[in-house]
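User: what does the whole thing look like in 3D?
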Amino acid sequence: MTPRMQRASGESRVTFAVRDGQTRLTDLYQRDPCRILFPDPEPGEPPQAVLVTTSGGIAGGDTLKMAVEIGPGGHAVVATQAAEKIYRAATDSDPCIIDIAIEVGEGAILDWLPQETIVFQGSKLKRRTVADVGAGGSLLACEMVVLGRAASGERFTGGLLLDAWSVKRAGKLVWTDTLRVEGETPLGAGFGTASALATVIGVWDAPQPLLEKARGLLESADKVRAGVTLVNGVMVARLLGEATEVRGATIRFLTDFRGQRLPRVWHI
Amino acid sequence: MDRSLYRLLAWLSPAYPIGAFSYSHGVETAVEEGFIKDRVSLVTWLETVLGDGTGRVDGALFATAWRAADARDWPGFREIAERAAAWRGTSEMALESRQQGGSFLSITRTAWPHPDFNEVEADLALPVAVALATALHGIALETALEAYLHAFMANLISAAVRTVPLGQTDGQLALAALEDAVRRAVQAAVAVTDLDDVGTATPLLDWCSLHHEIQYTRLFRS
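Assistant: Here's the predicted 3D structure for the full assembly of 490 residues, as structure tokens:
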């Protein structure tokens, strides 16, 4: 019998709520390899949480659970310290499972800005993100996946990437999408020559002006294929291309769209 | 007397008045951008739309919705219907599915009534609407789904023939070339036990649809 590697089972939960007119941390739970840091925000900016995977990367069979909650009227920014690396998994190993639950209370604002996830050749990842936005709440969420270690020329021709997103408004499902790449990406309507895809999701009560703003910004994006739409009241923007270009274009887009620099971890 | 064939031919014919001819599902942009330029590239494009894109998701939604309707499991059916309505990549693809699904349901329940049509809301995505009608009228899942996916492909080929342009014979050669791919898509869809495992790998399709929204001249609504 081959010995089984011990697999990680991490969890983090962070809750912000308004106390004495300020958004404050009200609940925190973390179990390795999930940690949460709270860098001092720039003056006048909302509190920030930075999620860290202390193991440096995630392998087959690992399970991570993360929950972020912003209470009614609160405002916070959540990012990740570095790109999430998903390592090659043994052929017979289970995929690594990441479950992310985002709750935005009534009238609350959350910017969910994790850095890119890099799926190494042969890795297996099943990630599910469910965001529920209460009445009058706002969510801006970014998700970028890179197929293979593009910087060293690696391509993703074997493995599994299943990345599912669901958006609910006050408990009702309004938008869902699942990216599923198993082995070689398809020709035709697949990825073309692209190795990375970024998705930016926006939920607001009155999305039309913000859709127009996003459209204007994305029209000038070069070296990536970019576009934006509004489905069932949810703004969905996509940026598709070579990994470095997509990262650069996504940073420029988010910076201009939000009218402020991304959290410092993005620039280190 | 088995009325399945007659009804399938009627409901999935391009003459069924649900407005299918006005949608290209991104084909118009794919032609404009040079992804589709001849019969060979058309077949490659459609194979991925079918096997790795919308056909994959809608096939799975069709199969699960058909089984729920066949079992008269209405809470289960409504859950699938809600998911199908939300599972749309872009505004135009959502319109395409919702408008045709609504028209299909309204026409079918009038011309071929069944009391259980009253169990569901009038607002259904197209694959779920067709799954419901075929299940209620006792048409076998695999036959119904093959007819559905064939109609999906035939409609996009017709859009391509008008925009590339391609000859009518090339269009039918493309349809013939997709025979096995449709069969495989049916098999993949009926094998799905959990919709959580289903997804797409066709960002270029989504991009074409996003780009179509702002395309200067458009013949099609998607």
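In plain terms: The longest strand of chain A covers residues 9-19. Chain A has two helices and 17 strands.
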